[in-house]
Amino acid sequence: MPKVTFLAKNKKIEAKQGETILQVATKARVFISQRCGGKASCALCKVMIKNHNDDPLFPPEEKELRLISNEQLNQGIRLACQARIKGNVEIAPMENKLQSIVQAQLEKQQRESEL
After folding, report:
1. Could you read off the pLDDT of 29-53 as tens digits, one per residue?
2. Distance between CA 40 and CA 9 in Å, rounded?
3. For 29, how many CA atoms within 13 A lie in the half-sphere containing its CB?
4. What burial letters (b/e) apply to 9-44, b meaning 16+ CB within 10 Å?
């Protein structure tokens, strides 16, 4: 059985070949943001496949290709609700831009308060 590693939570779980990343994340109690219930309409469940060059997932189908560009696919970005597991896979969440901005601002305030 393939092993799925959720890097952000340092969780490893066995998966059945053909299960989606979102299905496995739900079993592992790893939160992946999504709004459409896995129907490939919101694109909030984008994840980064760290070992994408090892070919751990089945190729994307039409639904996923409508929401993910070839450039993103080449970078290892997939939709968790559509990406089906073929082999051992390492998954990292996509960086939230708003969260990054807030974090940078908090760090700046921390540095200023230390002066």
Report:
1. 999 989 998 999 989 899 999 999 8
2. 24
3. 0
4. eeeebebeeebbbbbbbeebebebebeeebebeeee
Quickly list DSSP for 26-65. Answer: HHHT-----SSSSSSSS-TTEEEETTGGG--BPPP-HHHH
CATH number, domain with residue 102 = 3.10.20.30
- Domain around 64: 3-114
Whole-structure pTM value: 0.81
State how far the Cα of 41 lies from the Cα of 51, in Å rounded to an integer. 25
Contact 2, 87 (CB under 8 A): yes
Give the separation between CA 35 and CA 38, rounded to whole angstroms: 8
Count: domains in the chain: 1
The structure tokens listed for 109 are 């305030």
Identify the residue whose tokens are 């939160």: 31
